[in-house]
């Protein structure tokens, strides 16, 4: 569905939005037609009306600018139903986000049933624009961003940036906001010798991705040049947006560190309206903030990341069915016992338990070991898993090494996906390596807490728990070149709990799920004092989030934020410098 097909007459912007908006005090309603026209002219006519993806399936629609001209359409509805849970399709649409929390407002939205997109019950209501920004600019140039910043400063209309719409905390949407959509910035350049602008020397091979490039496109470009880049597990996540600025963990983190360790240069428009190049030779403070400080320091037009050698990655997969929670954690105990060795050897991977007696899985990737070396390292897990096969009904369906290959091959063949098009909240906690090396009592305490949290989460469509071996133990960042919390460098795992909900969840049910997730994490927080949580995979209710995410780096980050964004124009939930009480955050139902 081309965006242009959704463009409606600009003449009805102010009037229709005022008529539909519940918040009559919204700055959006005070914008005059002349101001919209001027903004549209300054971005070469690329100001567009946002329409929820599923609108053709609904008889009535509210909140969309010019909604009078929108009618149901069975052919288009059927097309949307067939791709509702397709992430590649969703990231191409402005009116769709990966999780419906980004689209909903106080429990209302315009959603299909992700488990059965043809379910008429979901469509038997009014389609609400919800938290989707009513208008967006299809960004092509730095001057588009500058025009939007000037407009936001003058009018007070909140400005947000949307790349792919993957953000779990709904920060690439906001009700009554103007959005900058970077999806169509798709240029890529591979450099055999990359000299950051303003520097004299090459820093080696590198890949530049404009802001709309996703990780699968970056993996393809790296692969075509016999290289590997450190990127996200989910292929449709953006390569230059929230993932990279927030730090970014990867199956390659064990070998090459987090995404922030590999970033070499950004081109951004900072919220003060200036186009800037940030790297180790200029705007160094901004560069440091963009290496792990999260979103909000500027609108990124492109980033350049290191291109590492291509590898023949060894892959081990374990899948076990009908295994109790206690038995799963006994497998985890054997696996975690190898953690120091796995770190030294640069492994990445994931341990994925289940709440119910379903299928649990382990996926392991090593870029540099030989077949024999990899098999030797992982043998204790394989042997233990074989030893429990058949006991208490446990059924081991896969247990061993799979065909190896380059990172693109690994991505295409082995990386599991998560459901999209439904509601999900997740929250993370990094598990310190010391919890695994300080004796049985400490480990028992941690495992008891992890199980208690998992029991609290309960069953669901979403993976209830992921234990990701994506921590940079081999990459100490001794000179504090990134702004990530130092605890990342001494952590063994990124542990993530997740809960999900359907189209018909009420605001109260959403709120209860957030609380459940928060309380599940509390069990693990209690036994991991001083650890950190990942700002991109964060519990919305994390208390004192800025200290928890960035620790000793927070004061410097706040200073940099104030320098480049004195009016806090580019802000979002849990960003550096966010004001929890701002009207923008009423949507969090707190
Ligand atoms: C299915 C799934 C799998 C994931 N897997 C991983 C993983 O393996 N490792 C990991 O570390 N994280 C992972 N994440 C979390 C991911 O890092 C965050 O969701 C991240 O915020 C996504 O960034 P995005 O730019 O693609 O998404 P968006 O929702 O478009 O943006 C996220 C944030 O970045 C801002 N932003 C986006 N583009 C720009 C830009 N050009 N300039 C300025 N600000 C911008 C937005 O305003 C928003 O605050 C995953 C998320 C999902 C949903």
Automatic annotation (TrEMBL):
* Domain of life (superkingdom): Eukaryota
Q: Which UniProt keywords apply?
A: FAD, Flavoprotein, Oxidoreductase, Signal
Checking Gene3D superfamilies in the record gives: 3.30.465.10
**Signal peptide annotation:** 1-22
From the record, what ranges are coiled-coil?
A: none
Name of the protein: FAD-binding domain-containing protein
Record's keyword annotation contains Flavoprotein:
yes
InterPro entries to which the protein is assigned, alphabetical: BBE, FAD-bd_PCMH, FAD-bd_PCMH-like_sf, FAD-bd_PCMH_sub2, FAD-linked_Oxase-like_C, FAD-linked_Oxidoreductases_BP, Oxid_FAD_bind_N, Oxy_OxRdtase_FAD_BS
**Domain FAD-binding PCMH-type spans what residues?**
129-310
UniProt record similarity statement: Belongs to the oxygen-dependent FAD-linked oxidoreductase family.
The GO terms this record gives for MF are: FAD binding; oxidoreductase activity
Starting at the broadest rank, the lineage of the source organism is:
Eukaryota, Fungi, Dikarya, Basidiomycota, Agaricomycotina
PANTHER family from the UniProt entry: FAD BINDING DOMAIN PROTEIN (AFU_ORTHOLOGUE AFUA_6G12070)-RELATED, GULONOLACTONE OXIDASE
Alphabetized PROSITE patterns for the sequence: FAD_PCMH, OX2_COVAL_FAD
